[in-house]
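Replying to the earlier thread about multi-chain prediction with a worked example.

Input:
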Amino acid sequence: MTSTSNSKRAAAHRRVLSVAVAALCREAGFDSSTESCIETLTEILQSYISECGRSAKSFSELTGRTTPMITDVAMAVSQMGSDISGLREYQRKLSRVKIPKQESMYPTGTPATLETGQRRKHSSYVPDYLPLFPDPHTYIKTATFKKPENNYKVIRTNAATQQRSVERALTHFIAKTTDSQTLFPGDSNLFPLIACTPATKPYLDALMPPDHDIAKDPPDEGQDEQDTQQTNSDAGGSSGMQQNDSDVKAVDPNSTEDTTEKSKRKSDVADISNNPFMMKVRKPKLKKKR
Amino acid sequence: MNRNSKKAEKSSVSPRPFKLSHQIVCLTGLNFAKRSIVGFVELHLLPLKSDLKRIRLNSKQCRVYRVTINDIWEASFIYSDPTLAICQNDTKQRNLHFFSDSHQVAVGSVDPDQANGELVVRIPDDALFIVRDQRMLRVSIEFSVERPQGGLHFVIPDGEGSFAKRGAHMFTCGVENASRLWFPCVDTYSEPCTWKLEFTVDKSMTAVSCGELVDTVYTPDLKKKTFHYMLTVPTAAPNISLAVGPFEIFVDPTMPEVTHFCLPGLKSILMHSTAFLHEAFEFYEDTLAATYPYSCYKQVFVDEAYEEYLSYATMSILSTNLLHSKHIIDQTFSSRRCMVNALTEQYFGSYISPNSWYDSWLTKGISKYLCNIFLKKLFGTNEYRYHIHKDLKRICEYEQTMGGIILNPEPFLDHSSLQTEKKPSHLYFPTDNPHTISYSYWKLFGIKAHYVMRLIEIRIGQELLLKVFNKLLSLATSASQQKFMLHSWGNMLISTSGFLKSLSSVSGKDLATFVEQWVTQGGIAQFHGNFHFNRKRNVVELELRQDPSRPGINKYVGPLKVTIQELDGSFEHTLQVEENITKGEITCHSKSRRHKKKKIPLMNGEEVDMDLNAMDADSPVLWIRVDTAMTLVRHVFFEQPDFQWQYQLRYERDVVAQIEAIDALAEFPSMGTISALSDIISDHKTFYRVRTKAANCFAKVANKLMTTFSGHSALITIFKKIYGSYSCPEIVRRNNFSNFPSYFLIKELPKAMGLIRNTHSICPRECLNFLLDLIKYCDNTKNHYSDNYYRAALIDALTNTITPAVSTVNTSVDNLIPETKLILEEVVRCLNLEKILPSYQYTVTVSCLKAIRTLQKNGHLPSDSTLFQSYAQYGHFITIREVAMESLVDIVKVENNGDIFGWLLDLAEQDPVPYMRHKILSLLIENPPFKQRESSPLSTDALVERLWTYMNCNSSHDCRLRCDVVDFFYKLYGISRPTCLPMPELGMVLNLKEKKTVLHSQVSPDNSVVEEPFQQESSSVPEEVPEVPHEERKRKLSSPLGTPVETKMPRMSSDQEEPFVDVITKSEDERPPTPGENLSDYGAPPTPGGDSIKEESISSSPVMGLLDDIESSRDSFPGRLSGMGSAGPPDPTFSESKPSPSDPNLPKKKKKNKKHKHKQKREPSEMS
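Result:
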């Protein structure tokens, strides 16, 4: 709203300025002028006046006032290099063109606010002078989407479907954009296979694949299970007839890891540096000759 | 004890006229770009005989430049390797009989245990006084090896940058004694000595070798460094190894003496994989009551390994594919098995080495035995028993098809007496040398050795057996500390007789009959049993039948334990087996009435309730088992009614019994079986392997009942019950593999489902949908382990559902049935996804390729080899290559595709990875394109020639490969001359010994002779055709600079012999031979060893004895020809080219004929 009124006002000022420019031109003896010429002069004038005003405001502030006085304007104009003394003479000059008075603008009232819904009335204990409640839509939450189902089955299904479609799209894309092989010679559009390319060190990828979908920390609860299994099979083992519940004696990576971890702490660094492979390579004696 | 050490000394009498005390190996140049090594060795020898003139050493594919003695005298030497071309003198013989014959002779002629060798060094006259004084001889040999075809393997990946950056490395490899392939040595286990090893390598590399690293020194230019190793424990040359590469070094945090090496980038998984190893060390220290015999231990993990593990003194070389991260479950089991076995071979194998090849069953057996008792502790008794049972089944299967495996053919009682005339006639390869035996035999040999060692444990008890091991170890330890008494080093060797004496002295038991039954004799015992319950007498009448006439079956005489589970408990009875049919009457302890309902005691003391409605109301017998504890090498078929098997499966607590019951129940399709099996599958207390087997059997049984029973819905119900999520059982729970038994079951159940068929003999649609859902809902995000094996198993399950296509008119996308389309979609998606997100060891890719091949084979997809060919290329991971090759082999067989067959054979000849060459041939042997006597368009002249050339002369540096080719040749053509070949020029053979003329076997239509592996060979075996013009032997004359040292001249024939003798005398008389010219002058040497030795060795070998007839007829040809005064080209006599194999019993007369020839020959090579 304000922006439009601003622009309107600016347009009005500008219109007056251009009229003034045109009048000045006529006074200076011009009969006619191009639109752009007037426009440019208007621009210059506008900036001149703006600068003048800004400068005058600075002067007034310099003297500790907030509103500029005529002296400030005079200072500003003279500082900009114009002689202010000719102004009075010019005012008296009869041949100057009179600019008709501009129509004044009528102020427009603020538009009525659109009321939606019923405003809540104040409760009995709220004094009347307090403002009313705002429109209900500004504080009442209304869901604009359907509530998702968080049933296990659906989640699993959706997750699986989504993953599959991602995988399928990705593999299909790569198969289409890079070299590919086909299962149907001569009919290569369906079921394209990404071509296999020999690697220089195939074991690297094969032995250390990206663990993209493995949970990070190994479980701890396996430990106790292990111990019970151990005792079971030990009990049954010696007789040759075992308890069946000893099942597989699991190779639990953690058990060994824990022990190594402990022992790692135990064994000091000196031990490892005693290992001949860790020792410094000796510089040759210069005279060494085999 | 006394007796024992005496024995050990006696057995250590060296067959060689010298004793090795110390050896230096120094490799000064190791060039990755040229794949070469340059260096020298120095052997410190103590002459045992004062007339020692020649020293025979082993050396293969090495180029020898110079031999000096005590750094003063240049010695002349002859280098000839008859194993380069096995049958060189003959161009037309194309039968395995002849080949294996020649192979044995060739290998024997360089066998250090027969005092032979490829490299013959003549001690110069000036130096002979040292020998006379019995002082130490130092023989230094400068040599180089370039582009080795065996023994050493260089792995050099393509790429930018230095070799170290590219991960290039090299290591030694080979079967048994293969050290001669990379340095001259006495390549036998029976010649231990101390070692000094020096290797100069690039400074970015590490050289790992045997013994203790005493020093690492830069070379003066600081570009290389030299690793100095000392091995003070006497060690035999075959136990020396080397690995060089830019290894990452990981010192074991618990045992700093143990160091692990891996290729760059793998250290994290190396740390995890080896973290358990100190437990094994501690275990063996406790169990054997002996410390680890060496001061250090090194594990090197290399790419393109020859075997999964190879153990050498103080180090082992393992395949890098054994490494795994903590997320991997399945690989852990096999990796640990390998590492532990490599460790036990340190004790028995490296530290204590076999005295001869015949004793190697001991080191193999003991090391495997020790390995298994640790694994029993690690993985549980059930796993152990399961493995023993599997081993037993493998042994039985092999011996029944191929014939017995003899662990030690020598009768141990009279060790030194003459060899008996035992001949393993059934095998097409000689078993007297590790270099001539087939790979599968070698594997089974190890398994049987372990099994027999376990039988000894049962006979004398574990404690006593461990005491024997301890005794052997402590004897060896005290021997190894004797630095100057070389003869006491004999205690570092283990011999069968010494071991048995120790056994009997420790245990006080006589194992003679046992040894005779299972060690010096091959074959297994086989029992067919059934029983009948006699109600009146309350007696079980048991009948056990043996049929020793069948191949690989021996008659067993002795006690046999039978266990009967009755209502009142389990009772063991011992039957004496004496005849082929043994009848036993066993009185039952319990009455049949089941009026009082009470618990039934089991063998392990547990008491259980049983539903006894299924059983026979009159009989108290629940089940019967024969030889429960597996105390024999036996194969038992026992007939029981189905309900007894079902009881056995449900209630017997021994996993072996359960597995046997499952195997038997496959033949009893009934609802009772189904319910027993499904109970076992769901019972989480049952051993997981039993459960997985039960699932498999369930599918089989359900398929037999398909009209009345829908197996798939039953299995799906079981699956949902165990693995379905709580709120909706049709969706599988998220993966959680922390319970390993449940993990192994979830891998197997889908596969079993895939096997189920409906009445149209296709897989039911619900089943397929269920499997597809399993793949779809597989969610590993909350799992702590990798699910790669599970996803692979699901693809396998899909593969199992594939049934032959209905119409195979043309296979195109439009003709795909919807089921196939679904399967294909999954397979393609998984295969493509593996390219982006590879799984551990590409397990999913492997399964996908299998699925594609199955689809092709069943006519759903056009059969196309290009896909597999691209996956079989060098540069893919080994498991992928293997499966691609397997598919290609299958294509060759199904389509008789000659091009692919040729392509595969090309690969088998030229693949850069030795393991792959071996693998291709193994796959071809397993699934040959055609078999004996089958006609096939692939069976051509050219193929025979190609294979023959390959095994004859192109595989001489890898004896495993050579034996593979022999195996393959045998699979294709049997032992006699391939029928596709044109007849030899002469179809008639004169057999002078029997004074008759026989038709050549190829000429005679009667093929009944040779083909049957077990048939005794008769004299009409395809014989030599002496008139065949012999190929002019290509003698490679070396230039004075001595380029190729390998002459292709194995055996002498008479015409070449004379000049040789001349040269020898000349060189001895007139001029000192210079190292460069010796070859050109000498040509090939005579059969190393001379005839007298030869004859002994031949007659000692069982196979050769068999050929006496043929040989003697060969022998007679020269005589015949000369008698006829035949003119023309001098006929190369076989008596010369093949050292006379005549039977020692034969009169000397025959030899006289040739005496004039032998005389000259013997003189120069007189050894004894």
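The two ends of chain B are 33 Å apart (CA to CA).

Feel free to reuse this layout for your own posts.
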